[in-house]
Design brief:
It is built from two helices and 19 strands. The chain is α/β, with parallel strands linked by helices. The protein binds coenzyme A (COA).
Length: 207
């Protein structure tokens, strides 16, 4: 008796066996290995406020930082030599710089807890699924709120605000507030005078 043929499925679009196994020069793998040892041994376990120590470690791996760039110890940096952070900029706990390509952050910016900046992708229109490393640029005076995702190739222009958990795959115009997935402009960022009497504490109960 003839065995019925099973319908053949189309071949997968992508042939992962054709993806470059080592897309970087050898020096990058050595640098990554050394940075991994320093990161897990000295950066990750540094005292919470040892910002100068962490700056020194990152600078040993060619990160461009100012004397006032502050990174918390649980910040992840993939390629320190592709990181640039300006004056008075703070990078909060658990921020993930997946900087396969360069990431730069201007001055007086704040990147809040758990934000992910992903400067890497694949060209899914080619069967070999090659790696792409488009840069991410964050301007000055920017606030990226908690757990936002900033995609490859995105520029967040000066003074913009990115809301919590936003997914940003397109450039953010200057001085705008964006939020949501996909991130959309929700308002213009309007500024008021600082009166100096804002304590940062919750308001007193009225009763
Ligand atoms: C982005 C943010 C700063 C805007 O605050 P705001 O100026 O008070 O904004 P509003 O409450 O007036 O919201 C404006 C609109 O955007 C929407 N929106 C605001 N934040 C949003 C967010 N994170 N995701 C989706 N939509 C959001 C609001 O629902 C509102 O929509 P509507 O006009 O349809 O009603 C704030 O919402 C936010 O995300 N804060 C982050 C807090 C944080 O990360 N804290 C940790 C670090 S301290």
């Amino acid at each position: 008796m003839e065995v019925p043929k099973t319908p053949s499925s189309p071949p997968p679009f992508q042939q992962v066996g054709r993806t470059a196994k080592r897309p970087y020069p050898l020096s990058v793998y050595i640098g990554r290995f050394l940075w991994g040892a320093v990161y897990w041994g000295l950066f990750r376990w540094s005292p919470p406020r040892a910002f100068g120590w962490r700056r020194m470690l990152l600078r040993c791996f060619k990160a461009k930082l100012t004397r006032t760039s502050a990174l918390y110890r649980s910040v992840k940096v993939y390629h320190p030599w592709l990181l640039e952070i300006g004056e008075q900029t703070t990078v909060a706990k658990d921020v993930d710089f997946y900087n396969l390509g360069p990431i730069s952050v201007g001055s007086h910016s704040v990147i809040s807890q758990g934000a992910v900046l992903c400067a890497g992708t694949h060209d899914y229109t080619l069967p070999s699924l090659p790696l792409r490393r488009p840069p991410i640029r964050i301007g000055s005076g920017v606030w990226i709120a908690r757990e936002a995702f900033i995609g490859p190739g995105v520029t967040v222009h000066d003074n913009a605000v990115v809301g919590a958990r936003a997914v940003v795959m397109q450039d953010v115009p200057a001085a705008m507030v964006v939020a949501g997935n996909p991130a959309r402009v929700v308002k213009k960022r309007l500024m008021r005078e600082d009166t100096g009497d804002d304590t940062g504490q919750p308001p007193e109960r009225a009763d």
